[in-house]
Design brief:
Low-confidence stretches: 315-330
Helix content: 10-25%
Mean pLDDT: 92
Shape: globular
Largest sheet: 8 strands, mixed
Distance between the termini: 34 Å
Strand order of the largest sheet: 2-1-3-4-5-6-9-10
Number of strands: 14
Order of helices and strands: EHEHEHEHEEEEEEEHEHEEH
Bound molecules: succinic acid
Strand content: 15-25%
Number of helices: 7
Structural class: alpha/beta
Radius of gyration: 20 Å
Length: 330
């Protein structure tokens, strides 16, 4: 089928892009996830020229995102991607956990077709609403012949889903690709591509096909000045399967927290050491034989948490980026 005739499927999950407030000047006191995905599309007249389908998968504030919605979303993305008449998928989402959903979807699906996540920093009712342009740009990317894999489109920039970080609480250009740099910019509806787009091995849908009760409990603990590790002991008391330590600087951990992390390891908890820095990798950690804890490498703490979630009850080392599926998994 000629690519011009192939459809884009827009899957709505909520977020500020679908948020409304009482006043067009109120950019903080709004409710996320109010406008249906069809309403978001109708607000962009230029989208009438593109063959689109839309489906509401969820309608939530993404701070409440979790495994159940990720499972449902992954299944719907996968079903639509298998259709010959679909060029790509756009997912509308909240910005707050966009990087987690992007990473989860890339690890599970690593699709050959584009899956383009988009969001907005201002509600749909705002004088400064950025959702309509972001949605239009996302659709532009979803039909682009070079596009592939899970990416995110915000403020005219295309980020790889694996590199995405939310860096700013408020400004419209709130995201970064960190050291890796952006994949492309969208300028007047055209893409200026900077580097190769994501490829990788998909874990596959079967990997996540388990009951919610069978997902491990994985928590993140941040190292801070004066951290004594008591929080880890409290977590051990309630029972956890995995622990990500967001260390200071290059993943350093205070003596007290280190001792508690060792107790966690001894109790059978999987422990990964990441960094609380917004950008950069943990350099020279476990992979260099210098550490008893697994290093997150270039994964952020929330990405490392997803790795531990995806591992399920059995353990295997994280390899930052290019993580290969193991043949002994479902
Ligand atoms: C959300 O993440 O759902 C709310 C915040 C946002 O989208 O910017």
């Amino acid at each position: 089928m000629p690519s011009a005739q192939r459809k884009v499927v827009v899957l709505g999950t909520g977020g500020t892009i679908a948020g409304t407030s009482q006043s067009a000047l109120d950019n903080t006191g709004y409710r996320a996830g109010q406008v249906a995905v069809h309403g978001l599309i109708d607000a962009v007249p230029a989208l009438a020229a593109v063959p689109l389908e839309a489906e509401q998968v969820a309608q939530i504030d993404s701070k409440d995102m979790g495994v159940a919605v990720w499972q449902a979303l992954a299944r719907r993305i996968d079903a639509h991607l298998q259709r010959a008449d679909v060029a790509g998928i756009v997912v509308t989402h909240g910005t707050d956990t966009l990087e987690e959903t992007a990473y989860f979807m890339q690890r599970v699906l690593a699709p050959a077709k584009p899956v383009v996540l988009t969001a907005a920093m201002r509600p749909a009712t705002s004088l400064q609403a950025d959702g309509p342009q972001n949605l239009l740009d996302a659709v532009t990317v979803a039909v682009h012949p070079q596009a592939r894999g899970v990416v995110a489109v915000l403020a005219g920039t295309v980020h790889s889903g694996a590199d995405l970080r939310k860096l700013h609480t408020y400004r419209l250009d709130a995201f970064t690709s960190g050291d890796a740099g952006a994949l492309a910019r969208i300028e007047e509806g055209r893409l200026r591509v900077f580097r190769p787009w994501p490829e990788g091995d998909a874990l596959g849908l079967a990997w996540i096909d388990r009951d919610l009760s069978q997902w491990p409990r994985v928590e993140i603990v941040i190292n801070h000045a004066g951290s004594d590790g008591a929080i880890v002991d409290a977590l051990l008391a309630i029972g956890i399967d995995g622990l990500v330590i967001a260390g200071t600087g290059n993943g350093t951990v205070s003596e007290g927290l280190m001792a508690a992390a060792r107790r966690a390891l001894a109790a059978g908890v999987k422990v990964i050491r990441a960094s609380r820095c917004a950008i950069g990798a943990v350099v020279g950690g476990a992979e260099a034989g210098r550490d008893e804890f697994e290093s997150a490498g270039s994964l952020s703490p929330v990405q490392a948490r997803i790795e531990l979630l995806l591992r399920g009850p059995q353990s295997a080392p994280v390899q930052a980026r290019g993580i290969k599926p193991r043949s002994d998994r479902p």
